[in-house]
Structure formats: C-alpha cells, structure tokens
Design a protein that fits this description.
548 residues, eight-stranded parallel beta sheet, three-stranded antiparallel beta sheet, 21 helices, alpha/beta
C-alpha cells in the first residue's frame, strides 16, 4: 500500500462533536452554538447525500461548514449508504462518497449496518432494516462492508444498528464483533441503539460488553430517545429530538476509560434548541476534554469483498416490517412493534399532502397496512415510483375503482388538485400603503364545497388524540363520522384559503366576509383603507395578509 493510503489510516483525535443535517433552519445550529460558547465542542459530524455536488446544492449550511472546516473539523456520516440489503452499492455511487469524504477532510466515514434505501427511495423516516443477527446476516453484512471499503480512501466505521425485534441467535455485540473480525474495520458504538437491542432481548443495559472488543471502537454516539412499554416489555425509539436518557449518560461515563482507541464522541442532538443543546454539551464536555491526543495507527484493510449472496433474505424483512406477511422468527411482539412504528411514520409522511384522504382510506391500522402491503407501495422500492405520496395516489385510484365512493373521491380529487393552487400566477407584492395576501397564502376554487370536511378532519384528529392521552387507546371507530361528512358536500363552486407550511399545504376555513377580502386581494393588492379595519386586523393576526 502506498504511503498516502497508509497515512489515511492514521486517525486524528477529534474529541467531542455535534451532529448536523447542514440545514440552517434546523436546530441546533452548530456554528451559532460555538459563537455562544467557544470551545464547547471540537467537530461537526454531518449527514448529507453521498454526492458532494448534491450536498452543495441541498445543504444550506454547506458554505459555512466548508469555510470553517479547518478550525472546526468535520466527519461525514452519510445518508443513503447501504451496509445491508439485497444489492451492493454501485461503484459510481461509492466513488462519489469517496470524493466527498476526501474533499471535506473526513478522517473516517461511519454508518449503521442497515438497509437504508432501495430503487432510489429511502425508507420513510430513514427507518432502515436491521439485518438478522445470524451467521447469514453476518456474511451479508461483511460482503457489503468490504465492498464499500474497497472504494474508500478512508476507513469505514461500522455502527451497531437499532432494533425493535430480536431476530437471530447472536447478541448485537457478538454480531458486530464477528463482522469486525471478518473485515478488520473499526467500530462506532451507538449507545441508544445498544439500549434498543437490550430491551428487545430483555437484557440489562451492559449485557455483552465484557466480551466485546471495546479496543476497536473509534467513535461513540449518544442521542435522545424514548422508551415505550407494551405487553410487559420496553421498546427504544431512536428519536434524536428527545432528551438523552440518564442511563445513557451513565453508560458513556463507564465506557470512556474502556475504549483506548476512541477518537470521537458525538452528540446527535437533532431538534434540540440552542439552550437545551448547551446544557447537554456542557455535561459531555466534562467527560470528553478538549486536550489533544496522538494519532491512532490502524492497519489498512485490503481484504477483497466476498461474493454477496443475500442469504439473509432482506426482502422478507421488508415484507414483515410493512405488514405484508407475519413474523416467522419467533419475536412476534417485537415484529408488531416495529411494524406499528413503520406504519406511524408512513401515516405522518402521507398526512403532509393527504391529511383528509389518508384518514378516509387508511385511517385504521388494517387499512394503513393494506397500503404498505400493496404493490403500489412496494414498487417505490423497486425503482418504479416517485414518492410515498404518489404511491398513495395510485393506491387510492385503484381502491376507488374497486369500491366506488363519491365522497371519498371528492376528497381525493381536492387534495390532488391542491398543490396546483400554488402554481397559479405569482402574487404581486403590496406597495407602501397597500395590503396584499401573505407570500405563503393563496385562494383557490373547487367544484364542491368541502368546508365541513376540512373542519371535520382537523376536529376529529384533535378529539381522538385528546382521548388517546386519557385512555391510552386511539379509538379509530370515530372515523365513521368523517366518512359521513365526506358524503354530504355542499354545492359549489367553493372558494377556499390554503397556506403553504413546511409539512405541506394547510387548508383554512374563514368567515365569508374575510374570504371575500382575500379573494379580492388575490387579484391585486389594495390600499389599506379599502379593507374594513376589523377584517384587516383579523387577516393580519392570522398571518393571511401582509402590508407593503
């Protein structure tokens, strides 16, 4: 191996880091945190597409990261990198990954051993599929890992995946140790992911660590999460927007002196406001001091990738995970919990663009599972679809052909039409002394009046959610009322107000008098005095109007 290649396996000390998706709108903003508290952390670990060009185009914080990467080093933690699944990553994709890592100076690349995407589509919510912890799962994961490493100039660090169900005879730490032994690759230990497995296996948090090669761990992740309990067992949901659990702080403190090769500790604080992230990072800073340490020399991995067989049957895991077939591995409770979580994420994804239609056609667990078990949904991951929303549209059309329902059809047609409202002629900005529609507000027209249906969908969501808090059950039988309302639309044409939100368009119901003002202002801004003062005040208070 040439000297430059060997030098790439000399790992520098990185210290304490903060994760980021490189979006200026996200919290916490890493560089604002450093401005508030210089020296609070030492590096940024960011997630982004494998291609550097795509990252430049999509990541609003990329210019600042690029400019500051000399004084605030970065580690690249990519998205869309399969280290498990039915197919190996194409060479061109991995060439892009390597070029990206080298350009930003990432000392290594770390990623969970999981199946993240298929057919060009990430699984909703980035809920990857964890390999079964079996010898077949080890062999398939080894083939993936060595294939990726063969295209990388820097080391690949293997991260233990999260788990809901216990699949296979191996403990997750034994699984990781075997993958390491057969690849020689360093490891990244995620403490929340470890907790998720220990709960699935009903084991103490530190079970399996005594025989685990902690000397091969170069990075540790700590993040927020939620433990939910059902049927006498717990499930850890790896939700980084939540506070870090106390037992994970304790585990980190106990592991730090046992990991002699450790080069970095990363706080994955996605969604934490600056003032909350400050508290967590100050606590971590006491555990991970900023003093430099000498580089760590690793033996470069030149092992060729073995033939990939797919013997662990990733597509079978997909079918179980999305409810197309029952669990056959024994942990039926864990498998149901995983499916329920995947269904919840799919529902949340669909509700951005189909909040009414989703309740009418896939409001119950069984109906939602009918969608995720459908050919339309699966085709997404076979390269034949564009998004979960488009797959849902195709599925609804088929459902309505098989079971005609004029009320549901009207709701689907309305939500299909809704995005077009924002594609109409652009709004003119109001001049000084004028008032006009807010930039993110439009007025549209539809043949049937769905005012009551829009109200009913929002009201029913609020009611059922409130009851669920009290009785711990989401009583979906209440959806029957929504179906009744869908079948009695008022005669049209109907003018409605829609506001663009980050999570999708929001249809608003407003009094007729205010609606008339909004319709008039949609044509052109008007002098402030031309709008009745009470309606002007209401429109401004609701964020529907803007002054010039």
């Amino acid at each position: 191996m040439s000297l430059p290649d060997a030098a790439a396996w000399q790992l520098p000390w990185r210290g304490l880091g903060l994760s980021s998706n490189l979006d200026a709108a996200d919290q916490p903003h890493p560089y604002r945190l450093l401005a508030e508290s210089p020296g609070l952390f030492d590096f940024v670990e960011y997630s982004a597409p494998l291609s550097l060009d795509e990252t430049r185009a999509q990541a609003s914080l990329f210019p600042q990261m690029w400019e500051r990467r000399q004084d605030v080093p970065v580690l690249f933690h990519p998205v869309h990198l399969n280290l498990y699944g039915p197919e190996l990553e194409p060479g061109k994709v991995l060439a892009d990954l390597d070029a990206h890592a080298r350009a930003v100076g990432s000392a290594w690349v770390g990623n969970d051993i999981g199946w993240w995407h298929s057919g060009g589509q990430p699984f909703p919510g980035y809920l990857y599929f964890t390999p079964p912890f079996t010898e077949a799962g080890v062999r398939d994961s080894v083939a993936h890992a060595l294939h990726v490493q063969s295209h990388l100039s820097v080391p690949l660090a293997l991260e233990n995946p999260a788990a809901f169900a216990k699949r296979g005879e191996l403990h997750v730490l034994d699984f990781m140790a075997r993958v390491h032994a057969r690849t020689g690759l360093p490891m990244l230990l995620d403490l929340g992911h470890l907790l998720s497995y220990q709960l699935a296996a009903r084991l103490p948090l530190e079970a399996g660590l005594d025989g685990f090669p902690l000397d091969k761990v170069i990075e540790i992740h700590i993040a927020g999460g939620v433990i939910t309990r059902r049927g006498g067992r717990g499930y850890y949901v790896d939700d980084h927007t939540q506070p870090v659990r106390e037992e994970l702080f304790g585990l980190l403190e106990s592991l730090l002196p046992r990991c002699p090769s450790l080069r970095a500790v990363t706080f994955e604080g996605d969604g934490h406001p600056l003032e909350v992230a400050l508290l967590t990072l100050r606590r971590l800073r006491k555990l991970v001091p900023s003093a430099p340490r000498p580089p760590l020399a690793l033996t470069p991995v030149t092992e060729p990738a073995p033939a990939f067989t797919g013997e662990s049957q990733p597509w079978s895991l997909y079918e179980t995970g999305y409810g197309a077939k029952p669990e056959t591995g024994g942990d039926t409770e864990g498998a149901r919990a995983e499916t329920d979580f995947r269904l919840a994420v799919v529902a949340e994804t669909l509700d951005r663009d189909w909040p009414i239609s989703r309740l009418l056609l896939a409001g119950t667990r069984d109906d939602l599972r009918a969608f995720t078990a459908s050919r339309e949904f699966r085709e997404l991951f076979e390269g034949l679809g564009r998004s979960p929303g488009h797959a849902f549209a195709a599925w609804t059309r088929r459902r309505l052909r098989e079971h005609p329902d004029e009320g549901v059809a009207a709701a689907v047609s309305f939500e299909t039409f809704l995005p077009n409202v924002f594609m109409m002629r652009p709004l003119a900005a109001p001049a000084p002394g004028q008032v006009g529609l807010a930039e993110d507000v439009r007025v549209g027209t539809f043949p049937a009046d769905l005012t009551e249906l829009v109200f009913a969908a929002k009201s029913l969501r609020r009611h059922l959610t409130g009851r669920a808090w009290a009785c711990e059950v989401l009583d979906v039988s209440g959806l029957e009322a929504l179906a009744q309302v869908a079948r009695r639309p008022a005669p049209g044409p109907w003018s409605f107000v829609v506001r663009r939100r980050g999570r999708g368009p929001e249809v608003l119901t407003v009094p007729p008098s205010l609606l008339e003002v909004l319709r008039s202002l949609a044509r052109a801004p008007q002098p402030v005095e031309a709008v009745p003062s009470a309606l002007l005040a209401e429109g401004l208070a609701r964020g529907l109007l803007r002054r010039g």
